[in-house]
Amino acid sequence: MADELVHYEVQRGIATITLDSPHNRNALSAQLRRELKEHLTAAAQDDQVRVVVLTHTGTVFCSGMDLKEAAGASAGDQGVNEFPAILEQIWTSPKPVVAALKGPARAGGVGIVAACDIAVAANEATFAFSEVRIGVVPAVISVTVLPRLLPRQAHELFLTGEAFDAQRAQDIGLLNSAVPVDGVDAEVRRYTDMLALGAPNALAATKQMLQQERSSNLGKVFADMLELSAQHFGGPEGQEGITAFKEKRKPSWVPAD
Prior knowledge:
- The chain is an alpha/beta fold.
- It has helices at 30-45, 67-70, 83-92, 108-115, 139-145, 151-160, 166-171, 184-195, 200-211, 218-234, 236-246, and strands spanning 6-11, 14-19, 51-56, 97-101, 105-106, 118-122, 126-128, 164-165, 177-179.
- The strands form two sheets. The protein has a six-stranded mixed sheet, with helices on both faces. It has a three-stranded mixed sheet with strand order 5-7-8.
- Helix 3 packs parallel to helix 4 (108-115) and helix 4 runs parallel beside helix 5 (139-145).
């Protein structure tokens, strides 16, 4: 649709969700939030989708909340109240989510990047937790950002609001890869190609395992992990993967070239 702000396309098992609101630097307006949430839901529910790529048009990935909409609104009417659901959708998506940035991200936009499983950005991209500079707190995005960042770096960047480049973003754990702008698409494709080799249920279970809190009781942790491992070794995917390895062929879940 010509008036939509977020586009959705599926090819070869890759669902590409594109933020397309360059007039306001892909700010998280009510319409953009609604469409983004709808497309994330569609990707999660589509058995043909193996990986989700979250990208953008224009020079900015996402500038954060739409401040023009937020001006004059009461605390109960702020769009930030529905933003956690979007971050949670990305964080808990059973399909791996890859962020592809060719431009800057600010505030809520950085929260989205942190929520993704893998993030690739152009060297020219910059990042900032700019909330304190306009009198607000980076509270909601801290849920996804803090697990990614080194603590000392988080304190500095959250409190100062200083902009930092893609190389530093990679060094502190926000990004997986910083590359020249003309290499972003190839780097994203490298990751999606690798992710597509994984079995769908195994990927979902592995993602869930990575995010869960673990008991201090080492024996219980080993018992839980042994049960999880056995379930998948003996399950349909595990048996298909083992058979494919023995027969020197690709497992059935690998997309056709």
